Amino acid sequence: MWFVFVIASIIYTVALWLISLAWLLTLLVPYLIVGGVVVYFVIRSSREQAKIEASLEHYAERHRELNRQEMAAWEAVVVDRQRDADRRTKAPQKFDKRR
Fold it and tell me: 3-state class of 99 per DSSP?
């Protein structure tokens, strides 16, 4: 007869654990859902931020290359003007020396 009480107490304990677990999940599920959504958005935003940074880096590198080309073009113009100015100043000197 005592085993009936033991089995009843085991069933009662398991039922209490299951009810406690159900209440715990009922109370925690909204927080777990919100936490999961937050983690999802953080991961998604970090991926998009990485894409934007890569795009900006590509744009910046392209812009730096264009700046280098423009600077080289301006330097070539300066060198050409300097060379033309040297020719203009040296031409009369050469003409005078030939006489």
Answer: coil
